[in-house]
Amino acid sequence: MIAYEETALRIAILEDDPDQLALLKRWVAADGHDVHGWLSGREAMRQAGRESFDLFMLDWQVPDISGTEVLGWLRSNVSKTVPILFVTVRDSEQDIVFALEHGADDYMVKPVRRAELLARLHALLRRAYPIEEKKQLSFPPFEIDISRSEIKKDGTKIELTPKEFELAVTLFRNMGRLLSRGHLQETVWGRSGDLATRTVDTHVSQVRKKLDLRPESGYRVVPVYNYGYRLETTRVEPATGAPA
Questions:
Q1: Residue range 178-191: average pLDDT?
Q2: pLDDT, tens digit, for every residue of 75-110?
Q3: 127: left (phi > 0), else alpha (psi -120 to 50), else beta?
Q4: Which of 8, 67, 82, 186 matches a 20 to 30 Å C-alpha distance to 166?
Q5: Which residues pair with 11 in a beta bridge?
Q6: Which helix (H) or strand (E) holds 183?
Q7: For the sheet containing 228-233, what is the strand order?
Q8: CA angle 49–15–183, rounded 5-degree value
Q9: d(CA 70, CA 115)
């Protein structure tokens, strides 16, 4: 799982006021994250169907599809667990309860203050992506040394380029989670608009080959057409206890 204090996360914002959207994007970007913003609910849903994000901030009152409809769509089609924060002018107890009971994780009433917004953001991210204190990660037969940028398999060091190492760590930390190419690009290469998606594919292929990520070895990289990749384990855990 990604540790949010160690890497920039991908934040998506739905806000129909261009000035407010620009302000929110500036605050969150200055906090060290990659930010994507949209002015319409339909566009937010379209992009969320094509890309993966670590947290969503939703306005309620947008002109085409309401934020609550986007919320329901995200929970049904994208993720049951990705953090969702509502930021809206609607302040009735009924509205707050409705949003929270339909899948929102937190709710803020506009106008919001920068320090409080970031504090709420940090709290959601801490819960969803716990801080990884260890510099040694273990995914037998792989041992990952973050401080030395090394991966060993059965005690033997695997030669990786710096980007291949970062990509491998990102995949292992997000075991079982589908990550879009754009998400991998921003996490490993930063926001470089001129980076071809083929570069991501090539690096994934190299990581798969060098680490021998095949079902027989306990892990496999699953490509999802026109979207991205998911690293998953194929190991079957032994049953606990002996038969009577």
A1: 88
A2: 999 999 999 999 999 999 999 999 999 999 999 999
A3: alpha
A4: 82
A5: 35, 55
A6: helix 181-189
A7: 179-180, 228-233, 219-224
A8: 35
A9: 26
Nearest to 222 by CA among 206, 210, 233: 233
Of 108, 165, 115, 176, the closest CA to residue 142 belongs to: 165
The CATH topology of domain 136-233 is: Arc Repressor Mutant, subunit A (1.10.10)
The runs of H, that is alpha helices, within 16-161 are 18-30, 41-50, 67-77, 93-101, 114-128
Alpha carbon distance, N-terminus to C-terminus of the chain: 38
Residue 189 to residue 199: CA distance in whole angstroms: 10
Q: Give me the residue label for tokens 């991908």.
A: 10
For CATH 3.40.50.2300, the residue range(s) in the chain are 10-128
210, two tokens: 């060098």
CATH superfamily of 10-128: Response regulator (3.40.50.2300)
**Residue 242: pLDDT band with limits 50, 70, 90:** very low
Q: Where in the chain is CATH 1.10.10.10? A: 136-233
Three-state SS for 14?
strand
Beta partners for residue 223, in sequence order = 229
Running DSSP on this structure, what letter comes out for residue 239? P
Report yes or no: 13 and 21 within 8 Å, Cβ to Cβ: yes
Question: Taking phi first (over 0 means left), then psi (-120 to 50 degrees means alpha), and beta for anything else, what does residue 183 get?
Answer: alpha
Whether omega before 238 lies within 30 degrees of 0, making that bond cis, reads no
Q: What is the chain's length?
A: 244
Question: Are 207 and 213 within 8 A, CB to CB?
Answer: yes
